[in-house]
Amino acid sequence: MGILTKTLLGVILAFSLTACGSAPTASRFATPDDTMVGQAPPDVWVESFTVSVPRSLKVNERNLYYPRGDIVWRGEPRGDRHAQVKAIFEAGLRRATPRVSGATAVRMDVQVLRFHALSEKARYTVGGVHDIDFRYRLVDIATGQQIGPTKEVNADLDALAGQAAMAAEGRGDTQKARITAHLERVFVEELTRPGGHVTAKLGLLQQINDL
């Protein structure tokens, strides 16, 4: 689908949501894989972790309603966006790991697949969804063997917009702070909750990310 069509759809859907409220819709990861449903969380604690943000992920700095790309990040001054995203994931992991206390020491390897936050134009007008995808594996420190399958996680987060976004910035609740806190919750849920994290249902704007 062309970027112009996608942008127009985003604007139309956003105004529809403003008028009618957002109806819950199924997201691409709303139902966990059958092999994960009901499974007990791994009995682990995280001794160390790694975060990879592949350089093949494309960055888009254009100020459009919906810039195409794998990484769209405007919550920090322009710079090495791959390094900035890596630091956000590492901060979330550092805050999450002390809250996980199992029997087996593991290394958690995380690979970022997508980090599509909001452009300035979207953040201060129609809003949207922070579309965050990653995969991870757990490796037993003692044996060097992987525990269970590698898992992909969708960690979408609703994004503040307009006056709400500006008010949040004023009290220090920045995009970076919100996303870091969200990732902390996601990692804890993955390692402590049966089935792991369940993607929030964020309405039609979430559907734009799948077009």
Description:
This protein has 211 residues and is an alpha/beta fold. The protein has helices spanning 3-20, 81-96, 120-123, 162-170, 175-192, 204-208, and strands at 44-52, 71-72, 104-116, 128-140, 146-154, 157-159. It has a single domain (29-200), classed as Rossmann fold (3-Layer(aba) Sandwich). The chain has six helices and six strands; from the N terminus they run αββαβαβββααα. Strands 1, 2, 3, 4, 5 and 6 form a six-stranded mixed beta sheet that branches. The longest helix is centred in the first third of the chain and has 18 residues, at 3-20.
Classify the helix fraction into a percent range: 25-40%
Gyration radius, rounded: 18 Å
Number of strands: 6
Output mean pLDDT. 82
H/E element order = HEEHEHEEEHHH
Q: From the 3D structure, determine the CATH topology.
A: Rossmann fold
What does the secondary structure layout of this molecule look like, with pairings?
Blueprint: H1 3-20, E1 44-52, E2 71-72, H2 81-96, E3 104-116, H3 120-123, E4 128-140, E5 146-154, E6 157-159, H4 162-170, H5 175-192, H6 204-208
Parallel strand pairs: 1-3, 2-3
Antiparallel strand pairs: 3-4, 4-5, 4-6
Helix pairs in contact: 2-5
InterPro entries: DUF6778
Protein name: Lipoprotein
Keywords: Signal
Keywords:
211 residues, alpha/beta, single chain, Rossmann fold, 33% helix, six-stranded mixed β-sheet
